[in-house]
Amino acid sequence: MQNTAETGPDARIDTTPLLDDPYAALAALREAGPVHRIAGTDGQPAWLVTRYDDVRSALADPRLSLDKRHATPGNYRGFALPPALDANLLNMDPPDHTRIRRLVVKAFTPRRVEALRAPVRRIADDLLDAMAAKGRAELVADYAGPLPITVICDLLGIPAEHRRDFLAWSDALITPDPSRPEAMKHAIGAMLEFYTGLIAAKRAEPGDDLLSDLIAVRDDTADGTDADRLSEDELTSLAFLILFAGYENTVQLIGNAVLALLEHPEQLAALRRNPAELTRAVEEFLRYDGPSALAIRRFPVEDVEIGGVRIPAGESVLLSIASANRDPKRFPDPDRLDPTRELSGHLALGHGIHYCLGAPLARMEAETAIGALISRFPDLRLDVPRDEVRHRRTIRARGLISLPVAW
SUPFAM superfamilies, per this entry (predicted)? Predict the structure, then answer.
């Protein structure tokens, strides 16, 4: 692959290799240069940043805005979300980002998350009980998916009967089917109707859950100030983001980690012998094959220079988390899975003020889910040839469509 940053602004790299063999393609790009012109996830031109130091710096650079209102007109086509789902933290800069994050961050402190460990283990054990007698399972549909959706729905107070619908809507948004453009539109409309109805029901009958707490913050006028309140669109968007991101990132992390262990049986055996190492192993799973291949798209509010390349204000910047986490200048022998690696500084969950809000919960769920699975089934193995394991075809996220296993 050529370094298109050096061949003019109109040259673009074909992104097909990033779908077919992403880590090899990213290694070639990283070696060729720090910044490249590609076709982004929406088909529009974008700048792809590949090296660890540049990605880490850019993640915390206040000149790179998440607010798409800073995009050059005609330069960006993202999800066509209605305002009631679009006013979320993934599209915001300070001070709005700071205000909204402050209202919800207490729900995801390490102490609060640790209190959820026993309930999460019960959910994992129930799912494994249902799988045990069959001798085989499709791990994404039967375990890696149901576990985080149950956890996050319980946290928000969402009734169990709605969870299957949410899984279908999420899949339509995560990996849209180009042959069925109406499916994404339907999913967005159904989600908006669902959240609007759920918030109305919680207002009428609050529960002991995070969504009821957020509604109380939205509706509380006792202090006579709007300084820490949510707008109605912000409330709905926050509920959407917590549920969507809480499911998407965790299902992909669990699936990718289990596949990595099945491909490295010596590492799987070592973790079975010493399950206390799982906490550190989860960090290696995040680095080695994390759920987010790209950070949320940024838009420079002024001309910026990254890796010696000038990027004009308003153009799309894609920060490759997957490439940064395999940069050999930061992580020796980066393509080797090593759960005992002395690891710090991976970027799988972000960096700076936009660091993943639910990071403690995602880590705990992955550690609990993987630990319960490998303990229950000591002879766990792939149930199909490795080349039949399918990943989602998107350069944005890194996750499995299915993972057939047996024991």
Answer: Cytochrome P450
Residue 151 half-sphere exposure toward CB, CA atoms < 13 A:
35
For residue 176 the two structure tokens come to: 């849209």
Alpha carbon distance 192, 186 (integer Å):
10
CA 383 remoteness from chain centre: 27
State the pTM of this model: 0.92
3-state SS assignment for residue 334? coil
Q: Decide the pairing of beta strands 45-49 and 64-65.
A: unpaired
Contact (CB, 8 A) for 406 and 136 = yes
Amino acid letter at 262? Answer: L
DSSP state of 69: G
Quick one: pLDDT band at residue 9, thresholds 50, 70, 90? very low
DSSP 11: -
The rounded distance, in Å, linking the Cα atoms of 71 and 326 is 29
Q: How many angstroms separate the CA atoms of 172 and 376, rounded?
A: 32
DSSP 72: P
Backbone phi and psi for residue 381, each to the nearest 5 degrees, phi listed first: -150, 160
Q: What is the mean pLDDT of residues 352-379?
A: 96
